[in-house]
Amino acid sequence: MNKIKSLIGGVALSVAIASSTLAAGVELNASSTGLALQGYDPVAYFTAGEATKGDYRITALHNEALYRFASEENKVAFEENPDAYLPAYGGYCAFGTAMGFKFDGDPNYWRIVDNKLYLNLSADIQERWEGDIPGFNERADTNWKDIADKSPSELQAQ
C-alpha cells in the first residue's frame, strides 16, 4: 500500500511541476481550444513510428476535438477509421488512469501496445508503466469506467 501511495505521490509531484497544463476536457484530453494531442498527428505514431507534429492546415474535427495531420493521407486514414488511431483513455496518461486520475498525456511519451496508442505524462512515469503494462492497463480499463466522465480536478479533490 505504501508503494502505491508513493507512486501516486510521485505522479502528483510530476503533474505539479509539468510545464503542460491539464486539459479542460473530460473524456477527451484536449486543450481549452479543443486541440487534441497537442497538435501531434495520431496516425503518424502508427505509420512513421514516431511523434510527429501535425500541420495546422491539415485538420479534422472528431468528437468536438481538432486533430492535426502531417499529410493529407494521414487525415484520410483517420477520417476512415478514427478509432484505430485515437489514444487510449482519451489521451490522458495511461499510468495516471491506472491510479484513478487524469493527468495530461505527453505526446512525446507514447507506446503502441496491441495496436492501441498509449500516452504517459513523462519519461519516468512511462518507465514505471512499462514495468507492468498488462497490469496497469487492466487497472486503467477498470478505472476508466468510473472516471471517464469526471474532470481531472474532480478526481484530484477526492
Which descriptors apply to this entry?
two-stranded antiparallel sheet; 16% strand; 2 domains; single chain; 158 residues; alpha+beta; disordered N terminus
Helix content: 25-40%
Radius of gyration, in angstroms, nearest whole number? 15 Å
Strand fraction equals 15-25%
Question: Which regions are unreliable across 5 or more consecutive residues at pLDDT < 50?
Answer: 2-25
Please count the helical segments.
7
Helix-strand string: HHEEHHEEHHH
What oligomeric state do these chains adopt?
A: single chain
What is the CA–CA distance across the termini? 18 Å
Question: Quick one: how many beta strands?
Answer: 4
The gist of it:
The protein is α+β, with helices and mostly antiparallel strands and 158 residues long. It contains seven helices and four strands.
